[in-house]
């Protein structure tokens, strides 16, 4: 037996009997941890760092934006919860991964949902030179049938709910208890769900940081999603839910009945939980080596429902489930100390599918062959001030469609209606339709939209 063959055999034996962490720093580069945090229906104008006039108290998110980059032209690939999450986790637009509609009711949320052949971020990170530990804590909402659940799709650990929305304290969705650990029900009645998810993420971060194994933590909070009467116990009021401590920062009490004021407290409570998770990075000694990305799954809903549609997307037009800016352009922040310049404002266009590519690059994993990805590497923009890697962004939801190219955007609410054209650099509120004044520009964007259609 030659020495080279002996060396290979010894390496294989060591790999089989010792944890991956043994090899950290021994010929393999130390890879950063990855923390992706999402809010649920948070408005573009709800945070002071985006809208100085906002009355909502969010010191931790404001601090995060100051410690890293605040993105002002970041888009979710779909204006609704289910679809946006599928786009994030697959790096692909809905027309490629096939999940184009919101999963509705128990049948939808507990069905297959996203095709099980789709490859998710955690599955890719498992193929990295040093495989990542992977955890998901919060709202799943892309299918919970056998084979579709988080721990069957690349996540080592899961604590969260299958559905799009639960009661924050009783964890009920459409009359069914909807809280799970791995694939079994978890009963934690009375525990505020954002706190539960933050606790789970903190525990995950602590354990895997101590093992010096790179980790990926996906933390999709269910707040500040609006309340739904069908998710309440009999006789329970249908109102925005926040712990008493969140009201201490306002002049009103936990008995406040105004939905808008109660919404403020919900966002403040979310901010507090995010702050605890970020503090845990410091406690674990991994803050400097963790890539953190925070964004909202879509914009706040502005459908005119009394007491429910109270979030702000100022200065953007409309909101969730529309292809106007208020539905698609969302708050987003990125932090990686020493790599991403603190206090920087990023105006370059990026979108949620880019996070799969970022995760793949950071981990050193290879992308699966034969898969078309709509995400592109955002690290050049975030780390090196490069221009956006995107020629354009394409959106279709229901009968609506939109495309952004440079500063220009076309949008229509139905296929049989004419395109509207906006210059977003001067008109982010989409108030001044330039379709008749800029016919050549309109044709240019329509041609680009057709190019996307042909690519499908």
> For the terminal residues, how far apart are their CA atoms?
54 Å
Total DSSP E strands: 18
Rg result: 22 Å
Report the average pLDDT across residues: 94
SS-derived structural category: alpha/beta
Which regions have little confidence, pLDDT < 50, spanning 5+ residues? 1-26
- Sheet with the most strands? 10 strands, mixed
Return the CATH architecture of the largest domain.
3-Layer(aba) Sandwich
Identify the strand order in the major beta sheet: 9-8-5-4-10-1-11-12-2-13
Please identify the top-level CATH class of the largest domain. Answer: Alpha Beta
**Relative strand content:** 15-25%
Number of helices: 13
- Approximate helicity band: 25-40%
CATH third-tier fold name of the largest domain: Alkaline Phosphatase, subunit A
For the record, the count of structural domains works out to 2
CATH superfamily of the largest domain: Alkaline Phosphatase, subunit A
The backbone outline, from C-alpha atoms, is globular
Task: Describe, in plain words, how this protein is organized in 3D.
Helix content is 29%, strand content 16%. It is an alpha/beta fold and 456 residues long. The protein folds into two domains: 30-391, 3-Layer(aba) Sandwich (Alkaline Phosphatase, subunit A), CATH 3.40.720; 399-456, Arylsulfatase, C-terminal domain, CATH 3.30.1120. A ten-stranded mixed β-sheet has the order 9-8-5-4-10-1-11-12-2-13, sandwiched between helices. A four-stranded antiparallel β-sheet has the order 15-16-17-18, with helices on one face. The longest helix has 25 residues, at 259-283. It is globular and about 60 Å long.
